[in-house]
Amino acid sequence: MNQERAARLDQQAVDAAISRVLAAERASREAMAACRREAEEIIARAGAAAAAVGHRLEARVSAAHAVADRGIERALAALRAPPTRDDEVSLSPPAARIDAVVRRLARELVSSEVGTGDDA
Question: pLDDT-based confidence at 25, cuts 50/70/90?
């Protein structure tokens, strides 16, 4: 009877060990499934965040292009418009500067004619 009892105790110990192994495997599968679900949720949130950043970037780039386009159009319109009297005055060099350039040119012409001895 002792042998029978020992065999039963051994079998119970083996059965208990197998049950613990199976329980650990089941817990591992459940933990892995939970981790997989959490990872999928993290990936989905990251994808949504990346898409939102992309949309904001596109909106900002479009707005910047619109501002640049309006500025270019204003500049082109100003270039196409006939000049006003104020524009003509501001673009004209000062009279004193014109006089100085004319005097210098006259001196150069006179001195070059005198230097060459050409009377023609």
Answer: very high
Specify the pTM. 0.47
CA–CA distance, 9 with 2 (Å, rounded to integer): 10
Residue 81 CA to residue 1 CA, distance in Å, equals 118
Q: How far apart are CA 113 and CA 119, in angstroms?
A: 8
**18 plus 37 within the same structural domain:** yes
| Total of domains in the chain | 2
Contact 91, 83 (CB under 8 A): yes
Do 70 and 98 share a structural domain? no
Structural domain boundaries enclosing 96 = 85-120
pLDDT single digits (tens) 56-103: 999 999 999 999 999 899 888 888 888 776 655 566 667 788 888 888
3-state secondary structure (DSSP) of residue 90: helix
Q: Residue holding tokens 């110990």?
A: 13
Q: Which structure tokens are listed for 52?
A: 């939102």
